[in-house]
């Protein structure tokens, strides 16, 4: 069935890769300062920031509409600069049965490659693949980079 899918996109950032990873691991609530038109808020609903099993709640604006996403931090790999978010509630759950986002940073010298992996199972075959959400993640990535290059 064509209902499961996976999108992978890589993007180069000039700002510090360790800092970028640490933001998504420890302080996603700071992203609203860096990308205010896309991310309005990120609250901690359960557990502690930066811990697997903690639950965070995003208010974000995508495709011109205000949306929410409740996510559980499913995996953290500090060594490999990886964080995995599993969406458990919110607008995405109206279209997808399951939805996870993995943000991974590869640092090679001055190069920092951010890889976004979106894995999902659609609720029906006519649900589109989340290309515009992938664009959203890439734009948030660039906003975070810009914030660090200008500060
Ligand atoms: C579910 C869409 C947004 C809220 C995902 C966030 C990363 C998990 C956003 C900061 C790209």
Treating each run of at least 4 consecutive H or I residues as one helix, how many helices? 3
State the oligomer. single chain
Rg estimate, integer Å:
15 Å
Give the strand tally: 7
Major pleated sheet: 7 strands, antiparallel
Q: Tell me the helix content.
A: 10-25%
Shape: globular
Distance between the termini: 48 Å
The order of strands across the largest sheet is 1-7-6-5-4-3-2
Q: What class do helices, strands and sheet pairing give?
A: alpha+beta
* Strand content bin: over 45%
Q: List the ions, cofactors and other small molecules found in this model.
A: (3R,5R)-3-ethyl-2,5-dimethylheptane
Uncertain segments are: none
Order of helices and strands: EHHEEEEEEH
Give the overall average pLDDT.
97
